[in-house]
Protein: Adenine DNA glycosylase
Organism: Asprobacillus argus
Amino acid sequence: MDFSKVLIQWYLQNDRDLPWRKTKNPYFVWLSEIILQQTRVAQGTPYYLTFVKEFPTVFELAEASETHVLKLWQGLGYYSRARNLHFAAKQVVNDFGGVFPNSYDKIIQLKGVGDYTASAISSICFKEPHAVVDGNVYRVLARYFNMGTAINSSKGIKEFKALAQELIDPTQPGTSNQAIMEFGALHCKPQNPLCDTCPLSESCLALKHKTIKELPFKEKKLKIKKRYFNYLVLNGEQGNTILTERKGKGIWQGLFEFPLIESDDLIDAKTIVNTKEFKQLFSKRASLSLFNEKEIIHKLSHQHLYTKFWIVEDEEVVKSDILWNKIEQYPVPILISNFIRSFSTKTD
């Protein structure tokens, strides 16, 4: 059985009608690939359409402010992708004269572009035979060949890449790559794969050995870290509040948030008003009330944030140029965005 030809035939009959598949423009394909990293198609599609409309060429994206890019990205998570996207757009303009690079070796030089993304763009747009390996590809290959090597190990990454490269159809690499990814997304699904109607079922080794549910295999995940966030939300008499931009290389770099007190465990109002941070921001007459009685648990890839929002009323005027009726202009983490929506609903 010719593995790739079977999948290509399946793909031509079953592929989804997705906007980025209607173009070979590498700029648009690149946008879609960055947006869809660690993001489901249903969630990523509206963002792709927004970026294409807002930045029809790489020049508009390069000229935009980082704050604007982050605002449009808001809700997608993994914000380093957005910052890298913006940086790479400037690379294309400054280093390649605004013409998107046309080979794997050049594409992979762009910020935030690794082997998978460079392989996808170069194969789809320039017909270079570079195999893609994403979560869907890992799953299809691991099951079909009954491979137990951990896909998140250095050995596994090399083995699966070599196998995918061996299997790709060099005459139509873009279609071949999209076929195996689409097959993993729609047919050889993580849960309840459609083995009964699978065109590869007769030669699938995991189906033969009844190891479908165990594959692909991953080494044990890193321990999840717990963090405790206490946000101080000023509800000023002049309709103002306080937002600060997160700096450094941690989570949410470049996004805005309310003043934050991070603690080692859950803390109460008495503890908060006695902190140095609270005393520096507010007067002795400031009052504090808890907005959410139960802490909100916001889950990131390797950490869980146990979050409380504390509403601060202060009789003395607290200087801040951030107005509540303009707060939507600022890019914020989805955790903050959800709070703002709830708070605005309750105070309207």
The CA atoms of residues 187 and 194 lie 5 Å apart. The chain has two domains: 3-214, 225-347. The mean pLDDT is 93.
